[in-house]
User: Fold this.
Amino acid sequence: MKIFAIRSESMRKAKNLAYLIYYETEKTFYIELPEDADEWEIPLLLSSFLKKGEKTVNSYHSKMWVQQRIIPPDRQNLGQILKENNLEYYDEFELLMLSKGRCAQDDYYLYPISIDKLPNNFDVRFGKRIEDAVPLKNNCILLFFRNGEVKKCDITQLIEKANCTSILSKQEIFNSVEILTGGYGVAWGTVLSIPYDKLYDTGKAIDLNLDDFKCFVSNRIISVTEACDILDCSRQNIIDLIKREKLNPINSNSNNFLLMKNEVVQRKWE
Assistant:
């Protein structure tokens, strides 16, 4: 992860107007606005977020800001430009670094900083980013936040507001939810993403932590092989019980079913 302060050369004294965060492996950009950000000082694209009360600029618009400052991919002599700058392929971050974020349209530039140079109050904001997300039934997600809080979030209204109700049509689709790079929210492919702050505000706190959840998973979810040991039977017997719906796996991978231990033990009682 690389972090840059966004500054303006028109200011006599260097001031960090915003912060650009770049995740190298995923090639993903995010821009964070400080609590005291001034809409007349920061770039126009970012000020629209500030007016809405949003201090985190999503990856799409953060990337858009970056793209406004570099050579477009459809430039006619792009190949020659890349060669002259010793670039083997079009890389938005590398092109951004060539000019340190400067462009002809304004006087903003990037200044590299370390994570400890971010404002102290960013710790509270970053604490609300997502550590893990577990899809549940009834359109709910169990969310583990970096600050240690755990919340159960019914996202029905958030999805309906985004007009993406197809995600709710099948549990299998709903279960495909993934965590956005950096824990900035959750997403279902390119169809829909929900930022972490909306999830944090929507969710209801529950008395659980990630270590407790991991403990539950490691102790209560077992493989077919472990089920065979408990019931003293063959793998074929377990598969037969699953086919006859006497055992209900928690996943659909026929090559590696996972089972609830209590359900298997209860079969032993019958």
Remarks:
- The chain has three domains: 2-123, 128-208, 213-269.
- The mean pLDDT is 91.
- The first helix runs from residue 44 to 51.
